[in-house]
Amino acid sequence: MGSAGLLLVLTLLALGWLLREPLAQAWRRRRLAQQPFPAAWRAVLRQHWPYFRRMPADLQLQLKKRMQVFLAEKPIIGCGGLEVTDEMRVLIAAQACLLLLNRSQSRFDGVRQILLYPGAFWVQRPVTQDGGVQHEQRRALSGESWVQGQVILSWDDVLRGAADAGDGQNVVIHEFAHQLDQAKGAATGLPADISRWQRARWAAVMSGEYAAHQQRAAAGQVSLLSDYAVTDPAEFFAVASEVFFEQAEALSQQHPALYEQLSRYYRLNLLSWS
């Protein structure tokens, strides 16, 4: 065999090796999605998550398949003495997988594990005051998302978010929106999976809506979006995602351009559900 032939063989072997894991992963996920959805999980959804009953039947089925893969791949680890139950796992997976409807399961490939606390958890973060003086501040949080692939959640807040599916506040949606934003690095409010031809429109709408929200907050005006959305563009995207999924009609009326961008990104027209 000549050098050209040997190079071709080596190239084909290398290509086969590179494709091996993605193909095996796709096969595993198909097998998981084809398994019967546990009746006990269905009971948890119907009892504790009224949002599920609002969903069209085809999306309910799709969500259950996404959940089966998610729960097989993503460990949920109890912290602070919490023992994780199936109810906890199902409610976290259901709300997180809303963000995967009509999209690839691979969108959450960067999520390595979910850490679950009984309630709000305390963290210490450096805070810079006027004059540049920096000190440590202790804060209680209901959720956090790390660029390394960890999502930290408070079970009390997960359960509260599931029970009220129309208040526009959902810690699971918020933190997993951050994970989409952090897929390629630090969160910026411009997720990497937005197509190149949509980026200019996304940036224009989101920056305009963010600036307008900052002005409303500074003037003390009531807004559909929480004041936390003024923190930075990444938090604005996460808060807007909560409102999109839970208060779609109000968002479409008060912020039609923002609703349109989120509808395109998440590939869902939630107005058609009612």
From TrEMBL:
Pfam families associated with the record: Peptidase_M90
InterPro entries membership: MetalloPept_cat_dom_sf (IPR024079), MtfA_fam (IPR010384), MtfA_N (IPR042252)
PANTHER family: MTFA PEPTIDASE (PTHR30164), PROTEIN MTFA (PTHR30164:SF2)
Protein name from the UniProt record: Zinc-dependent peptidase
Species assigned in the record: Ideonella paludis
